[in-house]
Amino acid sequence: MSANPDVATSRPPAGPQGHTPHTGSANPFVAMAANLRTSGIYIAFVVVVLLFALLTDGLSLSPGNVTNIVLQYSYVLVLAIGMLMIIVAGHIDLSVGSVVALTGAVSAKLVIGSGQPWWVGVAAALGVGLLIGAWQGFWVAFVGIPAFIVTLAGMLLFRGLTFYVLDNVSLSPFPAEYTKIATGFLNGLLGGNGYDAFTLFIGAFAVAGYAVSQFRTRRARIRYEQTVDAMPLFVLRLVAVAAVVMAFAWLLATSRGLPVVLIILAVLILGYSVVMKSSVFGRQVYAIGGNLSAAQLSGVNVRMVNFWLFVNMGFLAAVAGVIFSSRSNGAQPSAGNSFELDAIAAAFIGGAAVTGGVGTIPGAMVGALLVGVISNGMQLLNVDQSLQQVIKGLVLLLAVAFDVWNKRRGGVR
């Protein structure tokens, strides 16, 4: 089993010099089955978006609603990045919701309660998140207590500390500079008549970057004689991605412009995607989750990798805590309830395997957006809250069931 799930096919036997690499599979049905795991979530996302657009008479795809989805579910996307890495390594973290609450409470206590500058609150929240991650990483990596138990204890511990820091009362409001982290926009930098040209420029820049990256990946796979898609299919996929990205950029541009929190998300997604796909640390995470014994025999320092995974999760939970408190314009003792379930659901729906070793950052992001679109669509349709929970639970169950079925039939891992 490959430690890196981004490598969709194995290298064929070496041929004579000048051997032409494969472009596609001899059996298109086999190729389709092999790519079902990675492409199925994207197809499901498009289907769900179009379904709710039809059911709401286009309201779900209105510029204002699309912007609200980005603002409302940004914290889930941040948590899903860290949770995906934890799950790939074969662990789970049940404490992230409580960490979100505690870091937001620390920031509010300093900024609102003590009158400190907004950036002091942000720095303190991030510092607390790193300390929490180190605390939990120590028990998991060096003491050997299962992550489920450590983070379950952390869920209770950090929730109690949140009540203590806030003295069981809410604190609000934050200064305007702090609230702009989650509710601010960049617009008007390049002008535009009825739309924000800067947002469209950023969208076009993202499309160009994606295209260059895909062409470079394709050339590398051809150089190593790996199977690649036929050029027409490859170009079609690029055009489809470009159309989706530019449509999304247009909706933002015709609303309020580019959200500041989206810039934060883009930096995190790009950075962590590179880490998981191209760095030694990322390959070690996949190796540990895929086959722990083999990783140990290969010289991977499993303890240190696990330790830094939880430090990273604490940091990202703190980022989510800052974003959530900024959007809420305050800190509440009950903040972050069930956030860990949203992050776990995003990772599993996005293709992570329950046994570890499989999953990608983009997949987790689409999984989080899928949950967000479903929740938002049901709210627009005035679906009862209890039924919303039932539907989201069924979506998660079906996603995990697909993972189990895919492995039993010998699917791609």
UniProtKB/TrEMBL annotation:
Residues 1-22 are annotated as: Disordered. Part of the binding-protein-dependent transport system for D-xylose. Probably responsible for the translocation of the substrate across the membrane. Keywords: Cell inner membrane, Cell membrane, Membrane, Sugar transport, Transmembrane, Transmembrane helix, Transport. InterPro entries: ABC_transp_permease. It is found in: Cell membrane. The chain crosses the membrane at residues 41-61, 73-92, 118-135, 142-166, 195-213, 234-252, 258-275, 305-324, 344-374. It comes from the Bacteria. This is Xylose transport system permease protein XylH. PANTHER family: ABC TRANSPORTER PERMEASE PROTEIN YPHD-RELATED-RELATED (PTHR32196), XYLOSE TRANSPORT SYSTEM PERMEASE PROTEIN XYLH (PTHR32196:SF32). It is a multi-pass membrane protein. The keyword Lipid metabolism does not apply.
